[in-house]
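[Automated response] Your request has been received and processed.

Submitted sequence:
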Amino acid sequence: MGSLLVAVIYLAFVSLGLPDSLLGSAWPTMQTAFQVPSSYAGYVSMAIAFMTILSALASPRLIRKLPTPWIVIASTGLTVAGLLGFSFCTQYWMLFLFAVPYGLGAGSVDASLNHYVANHYSSSVMNFLHCFYGLGAVISPNLMALALRYARWNEGYRWTAYLQLAILAVCVLSLPLWKRGQGTGEQEAEESAGIAETLKRPGVVLTLIGFFAYCAGEATAFLWTSSYFAGTKQGMSRELIASFGSLVYGGLMLGRLISGFISNKLGDRRLIRLGIAVEFLGLVLVALPFKGYIVAAAGFVLTGTGMGPVYPAIQHMAPANFGKKYSAAVIGLQMASAYTGSTLMPTVFGHIQQGVGIGIMPLYLALFAALNIGMLELAYRRIKKEE
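Generated structure:
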């Protein structure tokens, strides 16, 4: 029964990744269809992320009041509604209506699943699970590429919604699998601290800034990678450009797969340091001034590989760094901080690239990678001093 439950959680992490990469891969085509500037992708992304922030901030209270599987089911249902809504949009403003369920469905499920896994499973399992997030994020841009080739961008959203609906059905059928460990989990949730109390813990605010920086870079890469190739490389078809939206996601999946095998030996902190070093190497490859797209494509995959272990490692460290009493609130705050970065920074980059060119993207990502590792290292020292 335990292994079946892990399999269901794997599938839930696939569903987390499915919606996240669609906008970036479809935007070069959607922009033309809606006849809006390229930077307008940032506003849609910002609306989705704002709703996710609200959902993430509500997650500590939801975790105290509702069992994890019901949070997963309700949130997945909301993302299905958002995806289907996007598929029927015929004007740009309509995207903002369906950004509400699209975003609300992400924050609570992400926080609740990360909290559950961080408290019940090893770092290795956490990385494998987030690897499956990467799998979902790779599947959807390729569905979009197929839709652009054989139908329209709308069908890419619709096909992804159907896949998400199938995962929702599995989650509903899996409800009996969660009952064994439910009692202990509910007791821990009831004893967890609130947000105001948690913010006073040493190292929490620094960790939130580091997580903000990580997700600012990650979300910018997700949203603008396809546009980077459209703006800097010549002779690429729109289908190939759309499929390249999955490069960073593919790297994430690879990085988390590798981390799953080595994380228990290296530990979360070493994994983060190694990952960010690999990310910098990937960004150097992206920045090299080659006319062809192969080196840049390899650079984005390597960038994603380096990013891979950072997110799950930060989440998995929450109980160890701050204690189980604070872990639910810390993870909820981390999610809110993450989506604040995801909300603001891709939009900021959209305006920057309109002025100076999208070729500035590697430098922009490198600045956030530096801020990420800097804040986390300061947080480690603060936590160690407190101990």
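Summary generated for your ticket: Residues 56 and 107 are 4 Å apart (CA to CA). Residues 183-190 have pLDDT under 50 and may be disordered.
If you did not submit this request, please reply to this message.
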